[in-house]
Amino acid sequence: MVSREHIRAAALHEKLQLLRSITNSHADNDASIIVDASKYIEELKEKVERLNQDIVDGTQSSNNQETIPSVTVETLEKGFLINVYSGKSCPGLLVSILEAFEELNLNVVEASASCADKFQLEAISVEGDDGGGEIVDAQVVRQAVLQAIGNRHPTSEQD
């Protein structure tokens, strides 16, 4: 007849062997298996901390990418549709962009802007009526807007 103590010892031995295989331990005695398992748990904790830090760094990186402004300019029949977006607003940005339009002799006919937490501008502009200026194309408008942003925006990167 098998005693309870023998059953418990066999169950404990089986669990220790399972722990040994999970932790890739090569230990032969029970105490060494437990020490190896403890080291394995510490390594896992360090991996979790590194992964959590990578996630935080990745989030910060993507937040930084959101602050890099994007500018698109589409040519319309008699003007341009200009979209500017930045995940971060900064003082004077809208004024700088409007001054760039003025330097290009572009009149804003319709615009929608938000300067609260993010900066977003959608504007339709047409060339001015004085006729003395050069004809501008979408790339010139885009570069002028990027230059205006670069003068005001701390993290802008020009293309």
Task: Provide key terms for this protein.
disordered C terminus, 4 strands, Alpha-Beta Plaits, alpha+beta, 159 residues, four-stranded antiparallel sheet, 52% helix
Strand content: 15-25%
CATH-wise, what's the superfamily of the largest domain? ACT domain
CATH fold-level label of the largest domain: Alpha-Beta Plaits
**Unreliably modeled segments:** 155-159
Rg, rounded, reads: 32 Å
What's the CATH architecture name of the largest domain? 2-Layer Sandwich
The number of helical elements comes to: 4
- What's the mean pLDDT score? 83
Task: Count the beta strands.
Answer: 4
Class from helix and strand fractions: alpha+beta
Name the CATH class of the largest domain.
Answer: Alpha Beta
Number of self-contained structural domains: 2
Gap between N and C termini, in Å? 83 Å
Describe the protein's architecture and organization.
This protein is of the alpha+beta class. It has two domains: 4-65; 68-152, ACT domain (Alpha-Beta Plaits), CATH 3.30.70.260. The chain has four helices and four strands, in the order ααββαββα. A four-stranded antiparallel beta sheet has the order 1-2-4-3, covered by helices on one side. α1 packs parallel to α2 and α3 packs antiparallel against α4. Mean pLDDT is 83; it is low at 155-159.
Q: Could you give a short description of this structure?
A:
The chain is of the alpha+beta class and 159 residues long.
How are the SSEs ordered, and which strands pair?
Blueprint: H1 4-22, H2 30-67, E1 70-75, E2 79-86, H3 93-103, E3 106-114, E4 119-127, H4 138-152
Helix pairs in contact: 1-2, 3-4
